Structure formats: C-alpha cells, structure tokens
Description:
Strand content of chain A: 15-25%
Largest interface: A-B, 44 and 36 residues
Helix content of chain A: 25-40%
CATH topology of the largest domain in chain B: Phosphoribosyl-aminoimidazole Synthetase, Chain A, domain 2
Number of helices of chain B: 11
Number of strands of chain A: 9
CATH class of the largest domain in chain A: Alpha Beta
Radius of gyration of chain A: 21 Å
Distance between the termini of chain A: 50 Å
Strand content of chain B: 15-25%
CATH architecture of the largest domain in chain A: 3-Layer(aba) Sandwich
Low-confidence stretches of chain B: none
Largest sheet of chain B: 7 strands, mixed
Strand order of the largest sheet of chain A: 8-7-6-5-9
Mean pLDDT of chain A: 83
Structural class of chain A: alpha/beta
CATH architecture of the largest domain in chain B: Alpha-Beta Complex
Helix content of chain B: 25-40%
CATH topology of the largest domain in chain A: Hypothetical Protein Ychn, Chain: A
Strand order of the largest sheet of chain B: 8-11-7-12-9-13-10
Radius of gyration of chain B: 19 Å
Order of helices and strands of chain B: HEEEHEHEEEHHHEHEHHEHEHEE
Oligomer: heterodimer
Order of helices and strands of chain A: EHEHEEEHEHEHEHE
Number of domains of chain B: 2
Amino acid sequence: MGSIIVDAKGELCPKPLIMAKKQLKETAINGTFVILIDNETSKENVERFLGDNRILFQTSREAGVYSISVTKTEAELSHPAAEDYCRPAAGPAARHAYCFTSDQMGTGPADLGQILIQGCINTIKEVEPLPTALLFYNSGVKLTVDGSPVLQTLQDLEKSGVKILVCGTCANYFQIKDQVGAGIISNMYAILETLSQAVHVIYP
Amino acid sequence: MKTDFDLLQTVEQGGCSAKLPAQLLETIIKNIPVLKKDQLLVGTDTHDDAAVWKVDAETAIISTTDFFPPLCSDPYEFGQIAAANALSDVFAMGGTAIMALNLVMFPSSRIDIAVLEEILRGGADKVAEAGAVLAGGHTIDDYPPKYGLAVTGIVHPDRIMTNCAAQPGEILVLAKPIGTGAIVAGQRLGAVARDDYQAALDGMKLLNRNGAEVMRAHGIRCATDITGFGLLGHVYEMAAGSGVTIRIQSKAVPLLAGAYALVDMGCIPGASFRNLRYVDPFVQFADGVDYNLKMLLVDAQTSGGLLLSCPKDLAPEIARELQDCGYPSAALIGTVEKKVQSAVIVE
C-alpha cells in the first residue's frame, strides 16, 4: 500500500498541524498517512494534537526528520481527553519523580512502615530541587485521601508546581476515589508518560 | 513619516506569544532569593500583573513592564498595541497610569530609522490616551526589533485589585474577546479575512482604562488582564492565588470573529500548546468540551481584556457597563466556587 506523504519539512508552527489536519479530513476511516516534520516543537505539537484527539500514531526519526505515521480511526475529532496527555518541553523543567506504590515504606511492621512514609513525604519539600511529579498507585493512593497525615504536605507541594498523579483504577479499587484530596486522578497512560520523562524515578 | 516596511518579516512569533514558558520560568525564579518588605503589597509570589508598593495610607505605586517583538506589519499599530499591552497591567490592578518609559530594541543598521519613529509615535499616542506622561526610555541596537514600556501607576492601598481575591459565589466577567494568537498566526498564512484581522488589531489597541474605571466604580477587588498565558493560564493563577475553584463555561467565552474557524483548520499557534502544558495538571475539562474551544481558551493573548470577579448580583450590570464603554463583547464566563480538587473546571 503506497503511503500518502504530507511533507511539512521546513514549515513552522502552526503550518504542519494545519497540513496534518487537512490530510486527516481527507483520509478515509482506517486509512493511513505519514507526516514529515523537521523541527522538534512542531513535532511535539502535532503529537499532542493527535494524542488529545485519540488518533493512533507512531513516530520515528531519521537524519533529523521525524516521520509521524497516522492511522485514522473512528475517533471523533473535537472530543478532548480529560486525562493528561501532557508532554512537557524537554530541558531544565524535567526533574526526578517519586513513585509511591504502597502506603508504607519498606517491608516490616506496618506501623513502622507508615511512620517512615510520612517522614519521607514530609521531607520531600525540604529537598531542593523539588521533584517534577509524585505518582501514587496500588495502596499508595491511600496517602492522598482526606484525613491522610500527609495530605497538607501534598497540597503544599502541588501549589509549588509539583504534579501529583493518583491512579484512578487503584482509587476505585479501594473505593476512595471521592476522598482523594490532592493531585489529579489519572490513568496508566499519564503515569507511564510521566515516569518515562523523569530524569530519575525514586521508589521510597 | 510614513513607511512601507513590513515588521512581520522580522519575526517567527510576535507579541505575547514570544513569552518564555511559565513552567520554565518558575523552575528558576524560585531559586532566586526575594527580599520581603512590608511595603511591598504585591510581589512575585502570586504571579500578579504588576508590583505594588505602599507609600503611605493614601497612595501605593504600581510598577510594571512589558515588551515584545512585532506581531503586525504596520510600525505605528505595533507601537500602539505594545503600549496598550504594557499599560494594561496598571489598569488590571485598579490603578491610574501616571508615567511611562520606552523600552526599545532596534537594529538601526538593518531597518530604516523611520520605522522606529512610527513605533514610538504609536506608543506615545497610547500613553497620552491613557492619561500618562512618556518620560524617557532606553534603546539597544538589536534584531529583531522589540518595543514596550515600563509603566508607573498609582492606586489607593485599600482599593488594589489583585488576582488572588476571588470569593466563592462570585461571577467572572471577561471584557474583550479572545483569539488574537490564532488570528495573528493565521494572518501570516494569509488565512484571515481582512475585516477579522483589523478587528483583532483594533481590540489589541483598545486600552483597558475604561474597564478599570467600571471596576473602580463597583469596588471590585479581584481582577487581572489576559495576556500570554491564555485565558486558562490567567484563570488558573486567579484560582490558585485565591484558594478557590473556578468553573468556566467554554461556550460563554467571547471569541474574535474568524478565530474559531482558524483553530478548526489546525491553525493553533505553538504558544497554545505551551500554555496547555502549563495548565493541564490543574484544569479538568468536562467530557464533550469542544476541542477547538479548548485550544482557544489557551490561546496566548496580546493586550487582552480585563477579567474580573464580582458579586453575582452585580455581574450583569458590570457586563452591560463594559459593553457601553468600548467592550461590546463583554460577557459572564464563569463562576467562583469553593475549592475542590481541580483549580479550574471547564465545561
């Protein structure tokens, strides 16, 4: 099958996106095409647009040119995702992330584990620079609910710009989704994306 | 002196779209020590429009600056827009502009100096219209050109309008339509109708002075102006600073003619994606919010309108007064609520 090529090389924002969107309109369901882009910003913005609209794509890079292969599915344009498809700009903004996979720290007596995890979270804000994100999954989500001894700290960190993602599946499992008092309820996509962009991931 | 020089050929992104990303700035600004002084009533910590210094019980000084590269072809219009944009921060704090200084970067060996004369004439005309005095400036040889002002204003210390005083139960009123970023980007691609483009330029030239007078007359305490971080960026800062949640009705937000069609064809400036990344963690978009509207809500505005929070029963009257004094699109766009999980909810 000969691919349709949209050549946006040498074009600056928002031209590559306009070209991509035009091709998308002209492509039949299950049809594919490839967009060629030679600058990072336009590539990120086109990817963000496709991700927000739940359009399947795959990006490869060769000799400084990005090829974004797009498959048009039934996905309706103009339905934004509530989830965080955010792809933060590369550069100094990306730092470390903490992963809390349990409401305890380490293996041992439960009460000791809980004391330790509280100490850990309360200390995060004292350590410069602050992390990019805190991720909570499995029983770790219990740390983010109303009444949690670290809730205030998490809210303070959030105000300082630290992204806090709480696993929605986990919050549902423990039936505490409506009690989550900090961060945003998130999904595996956003969690994996945040993890993959962090400079280091710390598992306390 | 008239000139035919097209300023737009000097830049890739002009106006407030050329701002550094907010999240990048935050990472470095927080490492810089800040001296606290009791007289500094508004400083850096709330991302407000301007700094405010209390002189005595009756007077506080408002200090602010703004400059940017060209966003339109005509030098005189660029001067007017850059000046209106810089002056706006004083009005957004509820103040009166008294004095302004020119900030100029201009490549005298590459562009006819007559172009600069036109830029400065545009700026001076707006400063005069604002009731302030142009009292000097500073000029650097640099390419591409940039222009703006440092502005001093005054306000009564008890009547400062900050961006962190929104109260649950209040209503948000926006004075000017949004979409200048998309229109300016579309103009470069030749995709904007002539009338739509001129209406956008006229909107950017429009001073927020009359709007500030309406706000003063009603004793408004919470206001800001919409600029480079887009409507949602500034709404988020208002919500976070006030400790509330703000709910925006996306369909109620006034748009510049032609802006929606541009975004629908994919003409979404890079600055919109940058702004979306900034606000994304704090904004909950309800299912079914139109994607094009979503991208317009993060469209970087240049010399955008006043956004004010006011008591519910006053809101229709304030919107009507704004409509009558030069802001015909003024509209009620959202509500202030008690803080829930997301700082901003868009429906």
